[in-house]
Design brief:
alpha/beta; globular; Rossmann fold; 6 helices; four-stranded parallel sheet
Amino acid sequence: MKKILFVCHGNICRSVTAEFVFRQMAHEAGVAHVFEVDSAATSREEIGNPIYPMALRTLEAHGIHGARHAARQVTRHDYDHFDHLVLMDEENLYGIRRIIPHDPDHKISLLLDHTDPSDRAHHRRDVADPWYTRNFDQAWEDITIGCAALLGKLKIES
Protein backbone atom coordinates (compact mmCIF):
# COMPACT_ATOMS: atom_id res chain seq x y z
CA MET A 1 0.00 0.00 0.00
CA LYS A 2 1.24 3.47 -0.93
CA LYS A 3 0.40 6.20 1.57
CA ILE A 4 -0.01 9.79 0.38
CA LEU A 5 -0.60 12.90 2.46
CA PHE A 6 -1.60 16.09 0.63
CA VAL A 7 -0.65 19.27 2.50
CA CYS A 8 -1.58 22.96 2.25
CA HIS A 9 -1.83 25.86 4.67
CA GLY A 10 -5.26 25.30 6.23
CA ASN A 11 -6.47 21.90 4.94
CA ILE A 12 -9.86 23.25 3.92
CA CYS A 13 -9.32 24.01 0.19
CA ARG A 14 -6.42 22.66 -1.86
CA SER A 15 -5.09 19.69 0.09
CA VAL A 16 -8.52 18.27 0.84
CA THR A 17 -9.53 18.78 -2.80
CA ALA A 18 -6.38 16.90 -3.86
CA GLU A 19 -7.24 14.11 -1.41
CA PHE A 20 -10.69 13.58 -2.94
CA VAL A 21 -9.53 14.08 -6.53
CA PHE A 22 -6.72 11.55 -6.12
CA ARG A 23 -9.07 9.03 -4.50
CA GLN A 24 -11.55 9.44 -7.35
CA MET A 25 -8.83 9.05 -9.99
CA ALA A 26 -7.45 5.95 -8.28
CA HIS A 27 -10.97 4.49 -8.06
CA GLU A 28 -11.62 5.16 -11.75
CA ALA A 29 -8.27 3.55 -12.63
CA GLY A 30 -9.17 0.47 -10.57
CA VAL A 31 -6.26 0.97 -8.17
CA ALA A 32 -7.95 2.58 -5.16
CA HIS A 33 -7.04 -0.44 -3.03
CA VAL A 34 -3.36 0.35 -3.56
CA PHE A 35 -3.51 3.75 -1.87
CA GLU A 36 -4.14 5.29 1.54
CA VAL A 37 -4.84 8.98 1.01
CA ASP A 38 -5.26 11.78 3.56
CA SER A 39 -4.67 15.52 3.84
CA ALA A 40 -3.42 17.96 6.47
CA ALA A 41 -2.37 21.56 7.12
CA THR A 42 0.89 23.21 8.03
CA SER A 43 -1.00 25.71 10.22
CA ARG A 44 -3.38 25.32 13.14
CA GLU A 45 -5.82 28.01 11.99
CA GLU A 46 -8.54 25.74 10.61
CA ILE A 47 -8.19 22.61 12.79
CA GLY A 48 -11.53 20.81 13.00
CA ASN A 49 -13.17 22.88 10.27
CA PRO A 50 -14.95 21.26 7.31
CA ILE A 51 -14.13 21.76 3.64
CA TYR A 52 -14.49 25.40 2.66
CA PRO A 53 -17.95 25.75 1.04
CA MET A 54 -16.64 26.94 -2.35
CA ALA A 55 -14.14 24.06 -2.46
CA LEU A 56 -16.95 21.64 -1.64
CA ARG A 57 -19.10 23.14 -4.41
CA THR A 58 -16.21 22.71 -6.83
CA LEU A 59 -15.83 19.04 -5.87
CA GLU A 60 -19.57 18.49 -6.29
CA ALA A 61 -19.61 20.30 -9.65
CA HIS A 62 -17.08 17.70 -10.84
CA GLY A 63 -19.04 14.70 -9.56
CA ILE A 64 -17.41 14.18 -6.16
CA HIS A 65 -20.28 14.11 -3.68
CA GLY A 66 -20.53 13.41 0.03
CA ALA A 67 -17.03 14.66 0.84
CA ARG A 68 -16.72 14.91 4.62
CA HIS A 69 -13.64 16.26 6.32
CA ALA A 70 -12.25 17.88 9.46
CA ALA A 71 -9.02 19.86 9.00
CA ARG A 72 -5.98 18.67 10.91
CA GLN A 73 -2.35 19.70 11.24
CA VAL A 74 0.61 17.66 10.00
CA THR A 75 2.51 15.85 12.75
CA ARG A 76 6.00 14.40 12.94
CA HIS A 77 4.38 10.96 13.00
CA ASP A 78 2.98 11.65 9.52
CA TYR A 79 6.52 11.58 8.13
CA ASP A 80 7.01 8.05 9.43
CA HIS A 81 3.54 6.87 8.38
CA PHE A 82 3.24 8.28 4.85
CA ASP A 83 5.38 7.45 1.81
CA HIS A 84 4.70 10.79 0.12
CA LEU A 85 3.94 14.20 1.61
CA VAL A 86 2.74 16.25 -1.34
CA LEU A 87 2.54 20.01 -0.81
CA MET A 88 0.59 22.59 -2.75
CA ASP A 89 3.13 25.43 -2.79
CA GLU A 90 6.52 26.76 -1.73
CA GLU A 91 5.04 28.43 1.35
CA ASN A 92 3.95 25.01 2.56
CA LEU A 93 7.57 23.84 2.32
CA TYR A 94 8.49 26.53 4.84
CA GLY A 95 5.55 25.60 7.06
CA ILE A 96 6.22 21.89 7.08
CA ARG A 97 9.90 22.44 7.96
CA ARG A 98 8.77 23.81 11.35
CA ILE A 99 7.09 20.47 12.07
CA ILE A 100 9.30 18.09 10.09
CA PRO A 101 12.70 19.78 9.90
CA HIS A 102 14.47 17.06 7.86
CA ASP A 103 13.50 14.91 4.88
CA PRO A 104 16.15 12.16 4.80
CA ASP A 105 13.89 9.81 2.84
CA HIS A 106 12.96 12.44 0.22
CA LYS A 107 9.24 12.05 0.87
CA ILE A 108 8.33 15.73 0.57
CA SER A 109 7.48 17.17 -2.85
CA LEU A 110 5.33 19.81 -4.50
CA LEU A 111 2.29 18.47 -6.36
CA LEU A 112 3.08 20.13 -9.65
CA ASP A 113 6.66 18.84 -9.55
CA HIS A 114 5.13 15.52 -10.62
CA THR A 115 3.96 16.94 -13.96
CA ASP A 116 5.92 16.53 -17.16
CA PRO A 117 8.85 18.99 -17.21
CA SER A 118 7.94 19.91 -20.80
CA ASP A 119 4.55 21.18 -19.54
CA ARG A 120 5.90 24.63 -18.71
CA ALA A 121 2.45 25.88 -17.70
CA HIS A 122 2.34 23.54 -14.70
CA HIS A 123 5.71 21.97 -13.91
CA ARG A 124 7.49 23.53 -10.91
CA ARG A 125 4.69 25.99 -10.14
CA ASP A 126 2.55 26.44 -7.07
CA VAL A 127 -1.05 25.24 -7.07
CA ALA A 128 -3.19 28.36 -7.27
CA ASP A 129 -4.54 29.27 -3.83
CA PRO A 130 -8.29 29.92 -4.12
CA TRP A 131 -8.48 31.24 -0.56
CA TYR A 132 -6.89 34.44 -1.84
CA THR A 133 -7.75 34.42 -5.54
CA ARG A 134 -11.29 32.99 -5.25
CA ASN A 135 -10.45 31.19 -8.50
CA PHE A 136 -11.48 27.67 -7.56
CA ASP A 137 -11.50 26.64 -11.23
CA GLN A 138 -7.77 27.37 -11.57
CA ALA A 139 -7.02 25.46 -8.36
CA TRP A 140 -9.14 22.56 -9.67
CA GLU A 141 -7.18 22.51 -12.94
CA ASP A 142 -3.81 22.57 -11.16
CA ILE A 143 -4.87 19.86 -8.71
CA THR A 144 -6.32 17.51 -11.32
CA ILE A 145 -3.26 17.85 -13.55
CA GLY A 146 -0.93 17.27 -10.59
CA CYS A 147 -2.92 14.32 -9.21
CA ALA A 148 -3.10 12.66 -12.63
CA ALA A 149 0.67 13.00 -13.02
CA LEU A 150 1.32 11.68 -9.49
CA LEU A 151 -1.04 8.74 -9.98
CA GLY A 152 0.66 7.91 -13.26
CA LYS A 153 4.09 7.92 -11.63
CA LEU A 154 2.97 5.81 -8.68
CA LYS A 155 1.22 3.26 -10.91
CA ILE A 156 4.43 2.85 -12.91
CA GLU A 157 6.44 2.35 -9.70
CA SER A 158 4.10 -0.47 -8.57
